[in-house]
């Protein structure tokens, strides 16, 4: 009875152990839905698309240069603030009197002696009371900061778009390698079959030559796809600012919400950072014009000073200490051509920013319309190419079977294989174009700017 129980226990134990082993094998051997693709043969850490965004925001040189420009613009407002801050000076002067004396005994010897010191120090305060030109100067500085901030967001959003486009480009090249590998194996299998039929007297040498030509063409296509992946790898690593080996994971396909075209145009006008940068630049130029125009407004400064002077031999009794205080009114009357030239330059800059803003709005609208309809066309093109690729693959399989049965010729097989190869390439190219068009529309409508702000990887966002 005990032996029977032990045998059943061993059977259940080994059964459970076998199930666990099979489950682990299925986890590690079966390809998951979100497959991981490697850039290189060497293994590295897996890099998701979000992690790629963070790396680019932290290490991309273009973004870091734009951050420095933004930081420099933040210093401009202090020049406007300093126009209202007091000027404080402390001046101290200490000099020694000396004289040469000749000997009274008729000799030529002389004596160099120091007498009493002469010192002077003063403490002065100059505080602006009325300086209205500081207000437009501060407004121009604030608008310049906002313009630089929007330019930073525009550069960052463009860089994040390049990251996403390169990321999907790498995945596309990997898919292209898989497709060309499949084509290469099919061409190789057909070549072996043709050579076997030639040896059996069922084919002619021309069939073998055609099969070899197709085989080498497939091999060259596979080599080209691998080289393209290496280039895409280098491009993505350059954008991210890294050089180590890593792997990419297939992210979710980029999609856009269903909305009318005018909705996307409105979002682009409201959220596109490049357009907002030009708007702030125009406001900054207008405020700068007001600053130069305010140069003829009178200025009033309050001044006070404390002075201590000693020019007598007896210092304790001869020193003079006194205070002075008062107001200074400065009335500009004529400043030559400097003010007029500055005003005209600021007005010209404002007009230039205004014209550039108007043209940028037109270009932005045209780009949104182009991407919107391009997405619609590519969506249907991808659907059609999927059907074409499936039918071409079925046709190749059928022709290959007919060739094995002696019904079709080698030319038919080569033609069918060329058609299925072209269909696979066209489908992958259409997929990549669709993804890039969706990403481009997201960039125009400010989606990548919001992604950058949500990452919170720097102190400027």
What does it look like?
The relative contact order is 0.13. The longest helix has 67 residues, at 338-404. The chain is built from twelve helices and seven strands. It is an alpha+beta fold. The strands form two sheets. Strands 3-4-6-7 form a four-stranded antiparallel β-sheet, with no helix packed on it. It has a three-stranded mixed β-sheet with strand order 1-5-2. It has helices spanning 2-29, 49-59, 61-74, 76-81, 134-199, 205-240, 261-271, 273-293, 315-318, 338-404, 410-444, 447-455, and strands at 36-38, 45-47, 87-102, 110-130, 246-249, 299-309, 320-330. The protein has a single domain, classed as Outer membrane efflux proteins (OEP), CATH 1.20.1600.10. It is elongated.
**Largest sheet descriptor:** 4 strands, antiparallel
The helix/strand class is alpha+beta
Rg, nearest Å: 40 Å
What's the shape? Answer: elongated
- Please trace the helix and strand order, writing H or E for each element: HEEHHHEEHHEHHEHEHHH
Number of helices: 12
CATH architecture: Up-down Bundle
Q: Roughly what is the average pLDDT, rounded to an integer? A: 82
β-strand percent reads 5-15%
CATH topology: Outer membrane efflux proteins (OEP)
